[in-house]
Amino acid sequence: MNEKVFNDKEKTEMKQSIPLLTRGYAFKEDKKLMPYYPSYLNLLKSGELERRVEFSKKYLSPCTVCPRNCGANRLNNQKGICLAGKDVRISSYNLHYGEEPPISGTRGSGTIFFTGCSLKCVFCQNYPISQLGNGNNYSNAQLADMMLELQDLGAHNINLVTPTHFVPHIIEAVYIAAQKGLNIPLVYNTGGYDSIDMLKLLDGIVDIYLPDIKYASDEYAFRYSTVKNYVSINRQALIEMHRQVGELKLNKDGTALKGLIIRHLILPDDIAQTCESIKFIVQNLSTNTYISLMRQYFPAHNAYKFRELSRHITVNEYRAAIRCLEINGLDNGWIQE
Fold first, then answer.
1. Which candidate in 18, 52, 150, 236 could, as Cys together with 154 as Cys, close a disulfide (CB 3.0–4.6 Å)?
2. Which domains does the chain have, with CATH numbers?
3. What is the mean pLDDT of the chain?
């Protein structure tokens, strides 16, 4: 990756285009601007954030950062199943405008794409990053600098993409960046195969959870993503995320400040069992939960090896998923026409 995502001229132009009064602020009901403080600033002041930096490191050796519990000694740079060793590894970072509207907003989401993944989805559209390991190693201090640079460019939030296997590194980077002025929400953008222990360490650090709910069948999860017990682990994680941040909260501009958004990618032949996942959300979370229902599946990576995954979804399959949302009263969120 190029270490400078934008050249100096581009950075200057982008900074000049940012409405300064709206950076880092939320609106009150009377529409007057008030300071918006992400939760991690409270943890910084209390000293709890520093304590979590040290406490989280013990999960790296033997590694139990993700539910695979592979036991790699990452502090000695032994690679885990996720491809991660001692250092945080990043493919790219930039302003991104293609996320859900409250995440991208008008100025973009400050996305940081982490290399590697605890899932091994045969249809992964980002497999050069997630499974081939494309990226570069950085220190946690450099990760903190990326966060600050993205904030300086006007990002509405810091969007941590595929962060599961780097939670201890992220916590330290947030601790460093918060001391230097980081003050925008953190988005935890995950495949949903997350350890409850790690999520509890993120309580009060993450403002917005953006997890996938990929499967309602452990058999399919193992066949297509090579993980065991995905359904129970994913559902427990969603419940914990919802407990921490609750339903999505927006400012007057419609930009996300805090809360949960769940993504669901529809797969051919109802492999994702969409309706089962929707029913889980209704019964265990809230009918006010925001859902991003995606129809962008295409046969990527090794999907061609599986006949059932070797095609796009049909219009009727997508309509059936939308109908399930409507029947179950999930009115908040987004669909793709």
1. 18
2. 36-335 (3.20.20.70)
3. 91
